[in-house]
């Protein structure tokens, strides 16, 4: 009897231990109905309630918004509605807001709720705002938690939501001339990023996509320099820290599904094999990229069609490259 009792107690203890463990649900891209995005100009989409050339909704001086303002806001798609001259990677990934004109996220099969801000860095603790109205990454998350989540919680199922973060492009450029130990400095920035990630996890979101840096060492301006800035080593330091922090986040939050997509490796491959992607120019860009009829008559500006360039301007890649990237990200997500 004592032996049986001991076995029974052990079984109960084991049962309690198992039931108390965090429950992890496998991520399924096919079942994903919502994407919530944070970041900078590589990710922002123009909204009817957003600042022009900056954001889907609000800015630093118009930080709050109502439920009605959020739900009636629409994604704008035209030549100036992104930093790429056309749809960007999150629009291609979700299929939301791709067509010219206006689109409500609510009307999309995969809804896109985008809080990225063009020109954003992670935090003013480390780098200044590009403009006094810029909303930094940690502020984007604060804005989302305070003003968007109370509304989206009625619409969005966290188990069928992917939360995407692509940040660091401005941080590494803005700090390139700092007199700091860059690996340690980048680690501080990315620690701040993951403090924001944790706050999103803490309200129930579990699926996270992190994008590392594009090949900023190969921008049109950098390829002309003997010593590019940022250089390949700096980019690798950043990307290594991002991966390390993601693994720590995963270990500390066992029910999370975090993934890092290696943007840098993939886009370097695109630049190395442009013919495969119908790209003819990987080192320059059309100087008239922002002219009103550049898409209709690029030859009149002395340019190739913009889709035949890798770079839209000195800091951003073309919509065509974003489309290529989004297809690869989708394949990556299907394998998770």
UniProtKB/TrEMBL annotation:
<keyword id="KW-0732">Signal</keyword>
<feature type="signal peptide">
    <location>
        <begin position="1"/>
        <end position="20"/>
    </location>
</feature>
<dbReference type="GO" id="GO:0016788">
    <property type="term" value="F:hydrolase activity, acting on ester bonds"/>
</dbReference>
<protein>
    <submittedName>
        <fullName>Lysophospholipase A</fullName>
    </submittedName>
</protein>
<dbReference type="InterPro" id="IPR036514">
    <property type="entry name" value="SGNH_hydro_sf"/>
</dbReference>
<keyword id="KW-0378">Hydrolase</keyword>
<dbReference type="InterPro" id="IPR051058">
    <property type="entry name" value="GDSL_Est/Lipase"/>
</dbReference>
<dbReference type="InterPro" id="IPR001087">
    <property type="entry name" value="GDSL"/>
</dbReference>
<dbReference type="Pfam" id="PF00657">
    <property type="entry name" value="Lipase_GDSL"/>
</dbReference>
